[in-house]
Each structure stands twice: as structure tokens, then as C-alpha cells.
Amino acid sequence: MIPLLRNLAADNARPRVTYYNDATGERIELSGSTVLRWVNKAANWLQDEMDAGPGTSVHVDLPADHWRAVYWILATWAVGAVLSDDPDADIRIGLDDPTADLSEPEASLAPSDITSQPDAFTAYVDPAPEDLAVDLGGAQVPYAALLATAPRQTPRVLVTGDLAQTLLTTYARDGSVILLRNEDVDKRAARLLAEGLPLA
């Protein structure tokens, strides 16, 4: 298990993803155990159905503000594959996209094609520190970056930039992320206050 996932497993009851969708009125909290379960299902699909492993490129073609993107990014790293922004990557995960290798539903409660995958995951090949983990527009990050230790703290972070980088830095520090989809900006101040975040 990669260090980011070990952090989630160590305190698996605490919320690790808080997801708002102002178009539907949803507010969903995912605990560490729930995030891990989805990561494991996605990683099993990547490894067993698509033969993904170190060197495989995966394009997570999901909106960065959708909660499903979180577990696909982490699952890509769990199998040692490379997260890529190239739509012609070896594997493409889409949202309501029948042309993708796997298409996730937009609706949070709609069933995913990976639901039947096992809840536990063991990588056939553990990622090596020198393996490339992220290749986004020429910004290449070796897997060693995922193994770096960081001060243990519990930050809550509103995702406003690159989701993969935010997950890396936040979960390495044992934190949690907040995603705002279809945001009603008039609600932001009250929402940040309710979530214990400083006003942006």
C-alpha cells in the first residue's frame, strides 16, 4: 500500500472527501474507509481488467471537482501507473462517455461498473521510487515524491487548482479535501465557515 493510502487507512473513520454539488443540492462526506474501498475497486479493475502497472499511462478524464476523480487518481498511483493528461493514454476513464475504456456515471448514487470489484487490493508489482507517477503537460513527477514524508497534521483543503497535486500534498499531510461542483459562489463564504476553512 502506498504511503498516501496508509494515511487514509490509519484513521479510516475521519472524513477525507467532502463533496458539494450545487446543481443537485448534494453534500457527501466520504470517510477514509470509503475512499479506500473505491480506490481498491478501481485499482483491481485497472490491474486485472486492463493489465495496468508501472509504465502504463492512465488519463483520468473526469472533472476535477467530481468525487469519483479522487479514487481514480489514487488507484492509478496504487498500481504504479502514470497519471497522464494525454487523451491517447493507454487507459482512459471518462464521465458519461461511452468511448472511454470505463465510463463513470455523473450521478453520485448511480451504480459504477467497478462496484463488483473486490474491496481489497494488492499490487502485483510495487511501484518503485524512480517510477514516473505523473506526466501532466511536461510536468513529470517521479514516484519518489509520493514516498516523501511530511509533517503529520490534519489540514482541510478546498480544491481550487490541480486535483492530483492537491491530493498528493493534502493526503501526505494526513488531511482531507473539499470539492465544490457547479458551485453557487454566493454560498462560498458561509460554506467555508461551516467547514472550518479560512475565507478565500
TrEMBL record:
Record's protein name: TIGR03089 family protein
InterPro entries documented for this protein: Rv3268
